[in-house]
Amino acid sequence: MRGLMKTARGFGNLELLELDDPIPKRDEVLIEVAAAGLCGTDIHIKHDQAFYTPPVVLGHEYSGTVVEVGSDVTSAQAGDSVVSPATAYCGKCHQCKTGHMNRCTAEDKRILGTSRANGAFARYLVVPDYIVHQVPKGVTMEEAALAEPMACVVHSVIDKTPICPGDVVVVQGPGTMGLMATQVAKAMGAGKVIVTGVTSDEWRFDIARRIGADLTIDVQGQESPIDIIKAETDGRGADAVIEASGACVACTQAFEFVKVAGHVTLLGVRGRPADIDLDPIVVKELTMSGTWGTLPSSWVTTLRLMSTHKVDVSPLITHRISLSEWEKGFELMESQKAIKVLFISFE
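The structure corresponding to this sequence follows.
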């Protein structure tokens, strides 16, 4: 099989290589990949701006079909349509035992497509059986490939963001995570979801409105975004702000958009130090949360939301290409011409 591998540290060092088909161990399942999503993390790895352990086949957002199971596996069988999180947690460290498996501290922790575990940018991959989830009926394999980022959003928004029915929620950034957060906030009962972005995001705003955003705001426009949000909230500000853009300036704006005693959720990753005035947290008596990855419960909730069509990820899939076109896929993401690029052919 062919796999897109990060061969060494440094910028670039991506190659489509011929690799041996993986063989599952007794507690693993062998999966034929149906679709794999190109994530911002993959872009960061290309630019040597994220944690990774080369050589490793990239890709951690995927769906696929089980083709073989190890001798001890009873939870899956050949023919099952499945997805899984990226991290295989140890279950033994302090973080795992206190319910924070997403922050497992095991030195030999396997992270799909990142460290010690080849990922989904290949025809086949193997994963431990205990992290596998079945794709529900009514969810396509392309949609299921977006379950991993959706589970990250579910953990951040449902698990950590206090949204009550009728609340006004501002989502900053109409990218994959922001558009997912918009739908999740709506599913939680938010009365109004306002999505903010920049002038070049107009085509993304169209998608945001299609999936449920009540209002979109160009923060580079002539009218003050703060004034617009104040007008939409009787002068109070948003009950919650979800920062999903990863832009440093958006963090400062989040403190301006949120009401006194409101909540700010950091979903986007900046990837560099930021000079931010933290006094508004004290003066406005704000609460903040940040999350990383997913919990097993995040996946249960995600797949229920997808199967009941409380969220619809299909409008976020803007490009479908073969793995042989990987350079085009990276260029689309880096130039912000795509929301989600899926690899759907691995020949």
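The chain has a mean pLDDT of 95.
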